[in-house]
Amino acid sequence: MFVLPVRFERSPRLHAMLSEEAHAVGTRVVVQGKRGPEVATVRGEAAPPEPQGRYGAVLRAATPDDLGRWEALHASGEDLKWLLRARARQKNLPVKVVAVEFTLDESLVTVSYSADERIELSGLIGEVRAHTRARVNFAAVGPREQAQMIGTLGACGRENCSSTHLQDFAPVSIRMARDQQLPLNPEKLSGPCGRLLCCLQFEHTQYLDLLKDLPRKNARVCHEASGACGKVTKLHPLAGTVDVFTDQGVLTDVPATELRRLTEAEIKALPDGGRGGRPGKLARDR
Fold first, then answer.
1. Mean pLDDT of 45-73
2. Mean residue pLDDT across the chain
3. Which region, left, alpha or beta, applies to residue 276 given φ > 0 means left and ψ of -120 to 50 means alpha?
4. Which of 81, 60, 66, 63 is nearest to 10 (CA)?
5. What's the pLDDT at 281?
6. What's the whole-number mean pLDDT along residues 169-192?
7. 211: which residues sit within 8 A by CB, 6+ positions away?
8. In angstroms, rounded to a whole number, what is the distance separating the alpha carbons of residues 121 and 142?
9. How many CA atoms lie within 13 A of 60 on its CB side?
10. How far apart are CA 160 and CA 213, in angstroms?
11. Which of 41, 122, 136 lies closest to 80 in space, CA to CA?
């Protein structure tokens, strides 16, 4: 037996499936998924199974008949999706039908939808049953899952990460944007789904490593060469520099390696108690 990583069309997530054959990468196969038989694509090399692993099953390599039926069911699902969207508008239902997917044996049809509040879907269930004898399953999806299934373009101009390579939705917080010194503008920090950008987590650990070598914002520091002291107003982790507003009223960009952090005793001994001045509208001293 072999373990094959396969990918379904609806998401980039890889699923481990047991197979009697080591199918080549790119092979379309019929697998027994949680919903029933579906067509998937092999996306990795075969590996031996783990003793405690939990796997689905690859039933066979997809035949031309399997692929033809799968394409026909996909087309039927698309037609039914647009019909349900039209019926929802007619019934004034505050719901968006995201996708309609059949299993290969047409025993189950899954209607994925998004809604801001709990709604009654009995009217749409009748519409589905009028077009298929398959069991109907309505599945609510969140904003990120919706963007994953539909596919959108991100601010970088490329297809969103959730549709191309993300295996899981890791937690993203506004603290990540602060650590990366990004402007806290919701429009620039939000993805097409309206949630914080998933890519904020990609480089967060690297930024944390860089910040370890920089003084904290508002810390009192002194330049070792000139002896000028002041308060840190902004950090530049990638450049390894910080902005310092000196006690002489000058805003300057200084490498962190040239700064010495004042001790608590030195700060208390300062005339202003370490509060320092506030940056005014001064030209930056570069």
1. 90
2. 85
3. left
4. 81
5. 38
6. 86
7. 179, 235, 237
8. 17
9. 8
10. 33
11. 136
Cβ pair 238, 210 in contact under 8 A: yes
Amino acid at residue number 238:
L
Q: Which residue matches tokens 């208390």?
A: 268
Residues with Cβ < 8 Å from 32, sequence gap 6 or more? 56, 57, 59
Rounded Cα distance, 167 and 157, in Å: 21
Who contacts 7 (Cβ-Cβ below 8 Å, separation ≥6)?
A: 13, 14, 15, 40, 41, 43
| Spatial separation of the C-alpha atoms in residues 130 and 119, rounded to whole Å | 21
3-state secondary structure of 198: helix
Strand blocks (E) in 147-248: 220-223, 229-236, 241-246
In the chain, DSSP finds a helix count (H) and a strand count (E) of 8, 13
Number of residues assigned to the chain: 286
Structure tokens at 2: 């072999």
* 12-24 tens-digit pLDDT: 889 999 998 889 9
- Nearest-5° Cα angle at 193, 76 to 122: 45
DSSP label at residue 261:
E
Q: Give every CB contact of residue 183 below 8 A, 6+ residues apart in sequence.
A: none
Cβ atoms within 10 Å, residue 243: 18
Helices assigned H by DSSP within the chain: 64-90, 122-129, 143-150, 161-164, 174-179, 186-189, 204-211, 264-269
Whole-number Å distance between alpha carbons of 131 and 14: 32
96-102/56-61 β-pairing = unpaired
Q: What is the mean pLDDT of residues 255-281?
A: 65
